[in-house]
């Protein structure tokens, strides 16, 4: 019941057993949280208790080797790694490399424009994947790829996909039955291979940069350089650095790319929404320049469209679970008391894995009328960015829970939001996206163990007006003058 589409099972149980219930798998108790107020009470208000991570056998021990940010326990090593990652992900840092995100979105547009002439069928997956990959490569290593055919594109996307297919909060029995961990198993072999490949690929790129720095060759500012410069002071070993940077390439590529893909999969099915967003763009931005982040507050429908995609198609419905680091008694909620099956006070034992059930929270009919319907209008009154919405005092007013919550909330949300905005607003600005008659888009979700991207599909992109190519060329020309778009040696 929990190996395929576990979010649907957890949702069914939430309807039956209430917004706070527990499940035991092997020797592991799980607490499933399906309500915003309880989520905030536990993960935010009691963050000192609920910010730990379970050292999952496959994900934390086998693949990440107990390092990095995502999988590390709530301890000084995590604080250090999170502090270092934040140096590159906080809002001010994102402003510093805003031109990179701007350039990559424009470059993606250009590739789509060139390849979609004469009604060619386009699979947006690789374009979206390369756009977010280039952003992460530039942030992490200071270089980018010039085309989807460069080997690192396929390899990085393979590594992310393999990660999604070998990990999942509740999917691997071997995570919870210690005796199985000693035996050989296909999933263990795959996890070990993935770990080796991550260290070889991303650790190898750090080594290249290290060599250049030692030779006095100039190196672009990037996370790898930052880590090498502070390696001694922060006592980072090679494995620490390789796994920390892997968190960027795993956590920051498939996720943002998935939202972009959902947009291109969904929008052809809703031509009236597409036309409404484009009319808004024509009115506010016009047809002689591309939309920018500064336009977002003036484009409420485009803004709402993105939030609705994220509500309906969170790429990781069950996020990355937290763990209770001490016994805890939860009493402080009306929501739990309202439900006949939720005992209050509820005892949460030390070591329980706390799963944020965003599927139920995003489909709660008491907040979202007709929750399965795709309807951007529901967000029209919400001008907040999701990164700001995550800090609202009233948990019920938060737009969605895609970025998790509390002290482990996604530190990449500022960059992710910016990337998604640039991609979606510019695709809408440039193209009419239409379905191919004999190739209907399958909106069934990709059945990985943890990630949820659409299954592969193709669409046709038609330039919306004559000057599209010219505007893209002109904007790219501006970047070329800044020396961008040239691959570093
Ligand atoms: C749409 C895009 C993204 C989504 C949906 C997403 C989602 C998440 C979620 C649900 C978590 C777990 C939060 C929790 O424990 O409560 C997380 C953690 C994390 N994310 Fe993201 N993320 C996205 C983009 C990014 C980007 C661009 C980066 C850039 C490097 C990133 C880096 C990380 C890291 C390092 C963590 C671990 C944080 C920790 O354990 O302290 N994510 N993300």
From TrEMBL:
Pfam families: p450
The protein, known as: Cytochrome P450
SUPFAM superfamilies the record matches: Cytochrome P450
UniProt keyword list: Heme, Iron, Metal-binding, Monooxygenase, Oxidoreductase
PANTHER family: CYTOCHROME P450 MONOOXYGENASE ALNH-RELATED, P450, PUTATIVE (EUROFUNG)-RELATED-RELATED
Positions of heme binding: 410
Family per record: Belongs to the cytochrome P450 family.
Keyword Iron part of the UniProt annotation: yes
CDD domains: CYP64-like (cd11065)
Top-rank lineage group of the source organism: Eukaryota
Cofactor: heme
Gene3D superfamilies, per the entry: Cytochrome P450
GO molecular function, one term: iron ion binding
InterPro entries: Cyt_P450, Cyt_P450_CS, Cyt_P450_E_grp-I, Cyt_P450_sf, Cytochrome_P450_fung
